[in-house]
Fold this sequence. Notes:
By secondary structure, the chain is α/β, with parallel strands linked by helices. The protein is built from 5 helices and 7 strands; from the N terminus they run ββαβαβαβαβαβ. The N and C termini lie far apart (44 Å). The relative contact order is 0.17.
Amino acid sequence: EESSGGGEGLDGDGKTPATPRMVPKCPARILIVEDHWANRKLIEAMLLQKGHILDCVENGKEAVTNTNTIEYDLVLMDCNMPIMDGWQATETIRQRRGLNVSVPIVAVTANAMKGDRDKCIQAGMDDYISKPVDRKTLYEIIDKWTMVPAGGESPQPSSPTR
């Protein structure tokens, strides 16, 4: 069990509000950005088995367009693609003001060298998984980056009655 802070006020005195238990969001709205159809279909099939809501595009330019109009819980971003690569697309998404500016972006790449991970993080990506994509690793990454408080979505403010 992970602790949720520095430990102050956590002695069970009843004065500290309980930290909500966090669970992976399911279904999560996920954008798959992958130029190779077989890789895209494989990732899509694994995520559909978990019940996630998916959009798929073939290059970074399409990813930038989609993330400008649709709110995502996570983006799975290939790095080496034609038209606009994943690093450029991530930088563009991060630099503009608006929708998805802070969405978790996970690099999905065949480049498994140490320098490549650093390049992904510098571009603004949050995490990294290598190809071929392993089902267990993919599910762990999705769970890690889509955590929400148990009991549903983020709390909605109650509307005042008139």
